[in-house]
Amino acid sequence: MCFTCYYDAVHTRGTCPECLQDRLLPGPRNADGQPTCATCAQIPYDFHCERCDVEAGHHRGRLCARCALRDDLHGLLGGPPGSPARVGLVDSLCASERPESIFVWKRSPKVQALLGGLGDGTVPMTHEGLDSVDNKQAEHLRALLQHHGHLPPRDPYLPRFERWIDAKLDGLPDEVRQPVQHFATWHHLRRIRAKAAAGASMRGPVHSAKQEITETVKFLVWLHESYQRTAATCTQQDVDEWLATGPTTRSAIRTFFVLAKKSRLNTKVTIQHRAAKTSRSLSQDQRLAWIHELLTGTSESLPYRIAGMLLLLYAQPLVRVVELQTSVIDDGDEGMTITLGKHATDVPEPFASLLREHLAARPNLRTGAGPDSPWLFPSIRAGRHLHPNTVMDRLRDLGVNLLGARNRAIGELVLECPPSLVADALGYSAQVAFLHASKAAEPWARYAGRRLSAP
Predict the structure, then answer these.
(1) Which of 248, 266, 272, 391 is most buried (CB neighbours < 10 A)?
(2) Chain segment 275-320, per-residue pLDDT in tens
(3) What is the rounded average pLDDT for all residues in the chain?
(4) Which domain range does residue 33 map to?
(5) Cα-based angle 42, 46, 52 (whole degrees, multiple of 5)
(6) What are the tens digits of pLDDT across the range 341-397?
(7) What values do phi and psi take at 160, rounded to 5?
């Protein structure tokens, strides 16, 4: 028997069709194509682990993979075996449905150094201790410990933003560093810390803050090198020249100068709000073609096709799509519905069938998180969902214009239903829905008024 067949045999569990017992099924398939247990297949070998007595493939001697992994982890961690922190960490790692994957993971020298540091206390088993390591292995372990309750939950974006600010300010001349440091810490960092304390997700605010800080640094460096002026001596002409000779992202310096005026650092410069002159949008034919491709094509795996369909059918931003939980989907006798806003919305076929297929085989459920992940799109990291950038990059590589697809989807929906109903169903504000309605066609309120006044 080859390794692949042996591995499949010793990892197949279920009800034996012969003796009707729930146990390991390493035996050959019967006439109905169902695997059988070792007793019914007359296999003269006892698959029970000599330590935990669980029937499983033996990994080391007569130990199952989970017990062998536990021994290895205790050896790497060292320290007193009864330490609650150590026991919790080992239990978290051994909770993986496939303990063999942890064997592969712990081969890394970085993982071994991390586990050794946690065991001897040089790396405290806290968020601050894991921050001091700052690598992918530490982040994986952090997610696992949070998921199993051994570390308190913490938004991952805030500490990264704090480190990013320090790196951004490093090496800047004092004329640039001082106003940017004040802007980054007293405005953005204070605001983001307050939102994080309230439990809000920090991905969006951190992304926006980084863009504003980056553009402010670029402008002040250019101003210092070109005209030897600072934020305090900057003129309106300097700002107008900067905005007129570069991309539209330069308008992000507006927030800095609004605050500069309030603090009396510079009261001479005024920057108006920037309004986009055009709005990206697919044609309806392009949208329908992408819907057909994602429903029937094989150009992408099922989870990303599902995410793309939620974008194209329901105008859901991918940042919101990855945060959906399986509880928003209700598959009853009268059909499937999905709750994206204030009330449930029907899921048409054949998309409903695709969703059922995805729910029955969601990926990344055999990690340390176990099969009970609430997310519609689970991540490889325990207790987390897929990062939105992962889904965005996959769909962009496929050729989907993400913003154009969302604009076209909501534009078509507000043509078919009153914008207020669309807003309630999809989780949009009424203001945004009516804005898209006015861009797409006659607003419903104006249409009704004309109908009433018609002779």
Answers:
(1) 391
(2) 666 667 888 999 999 999 999 988 899 999 999 999 999 999 999 9
(3) 88
(4) 1-47
(5) 145
(6) 999 999 999 999 999 999 998 988 876 656 778 999 998 888 889 999 999 999 999
(7) -65, -40
Residue 276 in any domain: the answer is no
Conformational region of residue 205, where left means phi above 0, alpha means psi within -120 to 50, and beta covers everything else: alpha
pLDDT band at 441 (very low <50, low <70, confident <90, very high): low
d(Cα 152, Cα 173) in Å, to the nearest integer?
39
Q: Are 140 and 96 in contact (CB under 8 A)?
A: no
Q: What is the pLDDT of residues 57-102, one digit of tens each?
A: 888 889 999 999 998 998 888 755 556 667 788 888 888 888 888 8
Residue 7 banded pLDDT, cuts 50, 70, 90: confident
Q: For residue 352, what are its two tokens?
A: 């409903």
Residue 450 is predicted with a pLDDT of 47
Q: Are residues 258 and 170 in the same domain?
A: yes
Q: Rounded to whole angstroms, how far apart are CA atoms 256 and 216?
A: 7
Residue 452, pLDDT score: 47
Query: Do residues 329 and 196 share a domain?
Result: no
* Whether 410 contacts 438, CB under 8 Å: no
Rounded to an integer, what distance in angstroms lies between the CA atom of residue 16 and that of residue 19?
6
Q: Is residue 82 part of a domain?
A: yes
Domain count, the chain: 4
Say if residues 309 and 291 touch (Cβ distance below 8 Å).
yes
* The residue to which tokens 């009704």 are assigned: 448
- Considering the domain architecture, whether residues 126 and 35 belong to the same structural domain is answered as no
Q: Is residue 267 part of a domain?
A: no
CATH number at residue 315: 1.10.443.10
The DSSP string of 203-256 is HHHHHHHHHHHHHHHHHHHHHHHHH---TTT--HHHHHHHHHTS-GGGGGGHHH
- On whether the CB atoms of residues 106 and 115 are closer than 8 A, the answer is yes
- Residue 400 sits in the same domain as residue 288: yes
- Short-list 172, 236, 128, CA closest to 183: 172
Identify the CA nearest to 69 among candidates 94, 44, 105.
Answer: 94
> What's the token pair of residue 333?
């006798």
Judge if 194 and 288 occupy the same domain.
no
What is the C-alpha radius of gyration for the chain, rounded to an integer number of angstroms? Answer: 29
The most distant pair of C-alpha atoms in the chain lies apart, rounded to whole Å, by: 92
Q: Report the residue count for the chain.
A: 455
This prediction has a pTM of: 0.78
